[in-house]
Amino acid sequence: MQCDVQKDFQALLKVRPLPDAIIHLAWSGLPNYRDFFHIDINLPADLAFLKAAVEAGISQLVVAGTCLEYGMQYGPLAEEQATCPATPYGFAKDALRKALQALQNSHPFTLQWMRLFYMHGEGQNKNSLLAQLDRAIDEGQAVFNMSAGDQLRDYLPIEKVAENFVRVLETPACQGVINCCSGNPVSVRSLVEQRCKERNADIQLNRGCYPYPDYEPLAFWGVPKKLSGLLQS
Question: Which domains, and CATH codes, for the chain?
Fold first, then answer.
């Protein structure tokens, strides 16, 4: 892994001139949120690469975080709210953010931590909720198995997520933790029913077939204070 980081760093140094900014989205092994490799493999590798980039002269980092940094906290989640991750994935992301913030003390640079909530759209994991629903509809299945669907989540289409990243990249004065979310809680059931309506699909929803995930609270959503400020400016 260290060898891979060194190769990435060497490739970065060959770029002339160096870019002013890096958008860092890489993170392997998802969605296995509870696997320890997030801590002992991904965390040191990503920190080594980003540290090397900063030391090489990159002045702006836009890094993807996760709402799982908040852990089992309910309701609206603010950007300044304390984190309390309950999974190795959330812990590793939170530790990476804190390490980069500590690095700013010795190597000043702009850090924009884009804390992602729930995304959907082209390229999503084939085992994600809407991807499974679309596959069931395409295959003409009569029933779709799901949880009870009462969970409240914060969803954004991937196009909007990309738009937010570009907006933040172009506004380096907007720094620190940035909740990349809608700010609107939507139930899983409503999300599924809306997709069925969009697809004009007559498929029965077998609600309650699966239990709720035990690594996230029943109801939580983000407060996009900084993004809202950018949209109003």
Answer: 2-121+153-184+215-232 (3.40.50.720), 129-148+187-206 (no CATH)
